[in-house]
Amino acid sequence: MNRSSRLMATNRTKITSGLQKGDTRTAVIIYGPGQETIVSVFADVLGKPYRMADSFQGITSIEQELVLGISLASAKIDISSRNRDAVVAINAHCVNLGMPPDTYISAQCDYEFLYPETTFSRRDLARFISFTLGQINHHDSLMSKPRTYFISTTFPDVRAALPNIDILTVGADAVELRVDLLKEPLNDGSFAPIPSLSYVGEQVMLLRQRTELPIIFTTRCTRENGRFPMDDPDLYYEYLFRAIQWGVEYIDVELWLPEHIRRRLYEKRGSSRIMSAFHDFSGTFKWPSPQAESIFVESRKYADIVKMISIINDHNENFELEYFRSKIRSEYPGSPPLSAVNMGETGQFSRTLNKVFTPITHHLLPIIAAPGQMSAAEINAALSLLGQLPKKSIYGISSPFSRIATPYAPFYEKCFNELGLPHQFAVVERHLTGPNCVEALCNQKSFGGAYLSPPVSLTSLMHNSSFFAGLNNGLGPSLTEAARTIGMIDTIVVQSGSPSPPPSAPPMTPTGSNKGTDASLSPGANNAEGLPSNSSLIFDNANWRGIVSTLTRDLAPSAYSGRAAVVLATNADDAASTMYALRALRIGKVYTVGFKTPPNLPRGLEVEPWNSLESLQRARMVPDKASPFVIISALGPDKSNIVGMLVRAFGGSRGSSTQIRKVFLDLVDGPRKGDPSAVAEQSGFAAYGVADTTAFTTVETLRLLVGQNVPYSFVRLASGQGMF
Fold this sequence. Notes:
Blueprint: H1 3-13, E1 26-31, H2 37-46, E2 50-52, E3 67-71, H3 72-78, E4 87-94, H4 103-108, E5 111-115, H5 122-132, H6 138-143, E6 149-153, H7 165-168, E7 174-178, H8 197-210, E8 215-218, H9 233-245, E9 250-254, H10 259-267, E10 273-280, H11 290-300, E11 305-311, H12 317-331, E12 338-343, H13 348-353, E13 358-361, E14 374-375, H14 376-385, E15 393-398, H15 408-419, E16 424-429, H16 436-442, E17 447-457, H17 458-462, H18 466-469, H19 471-474, E18 478-480, H20 481-486, E19 488-496, E20 508-510, E21 535-540, H21 543-551, E22 564-568, H22 572-584, E23 589-593, E24 606-609, H23 613-620, E25 628-633, H24 640-649, E26 663-666, H25 676-682, E27 686-688, H26 690-706, H27 712-718
Parallel strand pairs: 1-3, 1-4, 2-3, 4-5, 6-7, 6-13, 7-8, 8-9, 9-10, 10-11, 11-12, 13-14, 15-16, 15-17, 18-21, 22-23, 22-25, 23-24, 25-26, 26-27
Antiparallel strand pairs: 17-19, 18-20, 19-21
Helix pairs in contact: 2-5, 21-22, 21-26, 24-25
């Protein structure tokens, strides 16, 4: 099964956002002296009420709708005898109480969350709990991308990297923490030969607070160009298993470690993914040899990704690697993805051909992690020279009334420059009288994709459009599930070759049939400058993912499950992406204001329109769990008073969930008489604005258009609004 087929089969069985129900066991939070309030924060992030308990005894799965808190002293009594099928134990340790945490509790708990008292990051907690409980999944979406990169932080202390982390990670899909390169200062002015778990734990905590990227935890040994000693394999298990407990997304496990250690780490990896690592610096390793294949076979036994890296002496060995890669793909189709590159200047060519987690560097790093490493910009420049990354024209298509698209032109140009992409970017104003402008841009040989701001309805794009109707041999452009359901298009992606979904997209459907299509208007027909005949256009919607990402910045997805929401908009088109996002979050009921819901949108949702004060009053009388938890407004600035009234009506919390803070999201910008976000904050809501959603949508749009990652923090930084 090829990657596209595998992706389509996967996405038919999973929510396309990557959100999952996850671990449903009762979460028990172990807290230190004077740290009782951390239990309520965990409960708030999970969207559940909480209570304190005296022991693990008697806790069952019946209490899974609660978050329980147990003091450190009480937990020591019976944590080892807890019902592991019913309970997930999380040790929440405040580093201000001293490091390391209680070693017995650390060894016994399922996960461990380290946090500072003064600079506590709720977003860090939301990320930790969402990942460890399996509610979000980075790995599947990353492995479906055409290329992935990770950058290695080679600093002796990650604090040195934090000021530039937003720039360092442009183009990276993950960030590697080289634990073996960390230098822990001692009181006498020297450095510890091996950084302690206390020091490493704080480094992980600091890094995770400043980047939303997945972290790769690496303890590279001395034989493989690292500094971790090899005389005690059990030391590796101690550090690597602790990284799993800390909720690190990827764990680098070297192949030389004894099999029982590798197997145990794989079996106990939880939501983390194991990257089996083999590095050869001898110069004698050969890709065509039986040894290379046996190394892969052994690596794949306990791995989610297999990494094989060798130093070479001859340029032709790059082609031997590509033959090996092709052989592995054909002879071991069900195996984990292979990340394989050659080191040294001679091996740099292989780095342009590797597509799975290619290690990259950056000129702001103090040293490179391995010989021959290249930056993302250097790899892209090389791909361009090799003809593998042709220059394309990418557009931002705006309307005369759009206030968002034009200011993003300098941003996209900056991103292309930072990534070393050869593409040109331009903002074009769309005429509202018809789709001809969009057609003309898409039907170019150099067309590389476009975003539309504001989004355009699928009906409007397809209306009387012979060009779009003629795509895919008359089947029309391909639609992702989101585009088909939402009906609003904000991203047009070019797919070369046979039509298949973009790497991060759900299954596609063609838009129509070939009846009545003029073949002369098909792409490439009698037009050497038109869209090539072997290219397809994919219509997508990225905005709904921006909404989901905004709503889950400070809350786990489970906080929304089964809850009620209010959506305000002047028409269904403005509300469509929001409704789709709420469905992905498993919202139970949606109250609508100002629009009629189309039949295709509410699938999986209970929808009730508010068309009178009586219906609003009924909603105010329902039990707390059924009361609106999230309010999302797409109403214009002239209707901000209506938004403010509803926010006040449902402000605060009631009943048993007094610690749970409700959510307000304003999807409209511009001057107004009253600021709904300010009213929401005063009424007890956590408020988010259109800048958050636009930034997250931009991240997703760039992934779709150029296949590369630009972190949310960089988007906010470039727009003049810092993340922290």
